[in-house]
Amino acid sequence: MLLSPEKKYYVYRLGLSLASGASLASAFAPANTPLFALAALILIFYIVGVTEKVSHAVLWGMAFGFGWFVTGISWVYYSMYHYGYMPLEWTYVTTCVFSLALALFPTVAFALVVKFVSNPIVRMALALPAAFTLLEWVRGWLLTGFPWLNPAYAIVDWPLAGLAPFIGSFGVLLGLVWIAGLIGAIWALKGKWIYVAACGITIFSVLLLSMAGKQIVWSEPSGEMTVRLVQPNLEPRLLQQSMSERFDEMYFYLDNVKVEKASVDAVILPESAYPLAWQQFPNDQKERLLQWVKSEKKSLLFNAFWLSDGQYSNAAIALDEKGDLSLYQKHHLVPFGEFVPWGFRWFIDAMRIPMTDLQPGNESQLAMNFAGHSVAVNLCYENLFGSEWIRAWDQASPELLINLSNLKWFGPVKAASQHLQISQMRALETARPLLSVTNSGETAYVDAHGVVVKRLATDIDATMDVTVTTMKGEATPYVKWGDWPAVILAFLMLIAAFICTFAEKRLQKG
Questions:
Q1: Which of 298, 330, 408, 414 is flagged as catalytic?
Q2: How far apart are the first and last CA of the chain?
Q3: How far is Cα 483 from Cα 466, in angstroms, rounded to an integer?
Q4: Which candidate, 149, 103, 130, places its Cα nearest to that of 45?
Q5: Is-catalytic flag, 6?
Q6: Pick from 276, 272, 280: which is nearest to 303 by CA?
Q7: Helices and strands in the chain, H and E counts
Q8: Which end is more exposed in the chain, N or C (fewer Cβ atoms within 10 Å of the end residue's Cβ)?
């Protein structure tokens, strides 16, 4: 049976929108094809730009968003099925529902633009890039935020990433979507050369600023430290193993340093190294750790819980060569994983997730003095938020960033490789090197230019010794001002689009 022209229109546009979303997801690691991000954004902006009805924009937006997220974060099913013991068919349903919920953000952006901006060129050149960026920013903080798959992370190796020290990941995103929108506008202009030239000059200007960001020397070496990064590849199910087995497993890596007489200044263990509170460590094991750092004259950083006034927090604990302790308590907690949103206790019970009622740490915590250097430390999910890192500059200017993670919950490769791209962006924004120390990968050393210097493969039990060049210098513009410059610029672009629309209507009436 042949489809009517109207049905063909819907099927064709829905198919293109869904494909462009899936193409955008393919830009991220492990596929790592950033050109797909630009192509996908050009296509969806053009489709929405020439759309006449808001209802159609909603359809295209939901199809695009669903293709983007269900392809890009398909790994969420893994934890529900393998560790939450949810029936497989329900993990697929839950993943799809979650993807549809995230698809609402680009959908709202597209619908608002089609509703209030009538000119297709103005939509593509100004309104769509601005609205898309603003809704991505909202996705980054609403309900504690989930900014995973920000398209900026897909292009950390492109020249556009040079915008990161100026205006952060959302600024890189704004640059990417603006170029995509301008290319779409050039496509739609069809030979109106004055406007085509204006679009071309704007694209060139964005690229020029990006290249300037790459060329500016934002920081300079302050010293070196050699660190052993431990990736034990522990199964999450083993969190319930006897503590004596867990301590023996962790001491294997510490004793290995001792046996080899390794010339390292410090050892770093990943998140979930010790799934109990420091205050609840058996006395002999606590003393064993303290004696190790004193006798070996090395610093040690590890993850454990911290117990205070009957409340647990997720913490990073550092011991120096004298046995003195430094503490960081995780501030930005994971909903459902570390705290229970109101009304969702039933979900936590069904998923059998332990330690879901944690206490957040203070917003501003001092950077640690680790192995003779000022370092900023955070835990897993916090790495998604550039604003979490820049709080460290409130008290000190760190020379190195360290993130402890455990992504074993989400499968062997996809989530881990995407997380490493996020680490590259954090290094670019702050002009500081970053050590990503993970349970199962990708454990890596990222330098201050966002380049992955050395990494371990995922899903293997291994260690890696790296000599890190620590960096000092003035805070980058992003560290000083955070996401606000990018947000304000996007708002100004949106206002300009509204002014153009208002002026066009006045001319038509006059």
A1: 330
A2: 49
A3: 32
A4: 130
A5: no
A6: 272
A7: 16, 12
A8: N
Domains, the chain, with CATH or none = 5-217+483-509 (no CATH), 220-471 (3.60.110.10)
Q: Dihedral through CA 482, CA 484, CA 486, CA 487, nearest 10?
A: 140
Total residue length of the chain: 510
What would the two tokens of residue 386 be? 């550039």
Structure tokens, 178: 């603006």
460-502: per-residue pLDDT in tens?
999 999 999 999 999 999 999 999 999 999 999 999 999 999 9
Considering the entire predicted model, what is its pTM? 0.94
CA 117/CA 134 separation, integer angstroms: 16
Q: List Cβ neighbours of 290 (8 Å cut-off, separation of 6 or more).
A: 319, 323
Which is the catalytic residue, given 136, 271, 388, 399? Answer: 271
Tens digit of pLDDT for each residue in 102-117? 999 999 999 999 999 9
Please report the pLDDT score of residue 341 as a whole number: 64
Intervals of the chain under pLDDT 50: none
β-strand partners of 223: 470
- Does residue 271 carry a catalytic annotation? yes
- Is 408 a residue of the active site? no
Torsion of CA 117, 123, 126, 131, to 10 degrees: 70
- The predicted pLDDT at position 168 comes to 98
Strand partners, 244: none
Residue with structure tokens 């920081």?
Answer: 219
> Nearest 5°: phi and psi at 322?
-95, -5
Collapsing DSSP to helix, strand or coil, 311 comes out as strand
Q: Which residue of the set 136, 338, 380, 408 is catalytic?
A: 380
315 touches 304 (CB < 8 A)? yes
Instruction: Please answer whether residues 300 and 273 qualify as being in contact, where contact means their C-beta atoms are separated by less than 8 angstroms.
Output: no
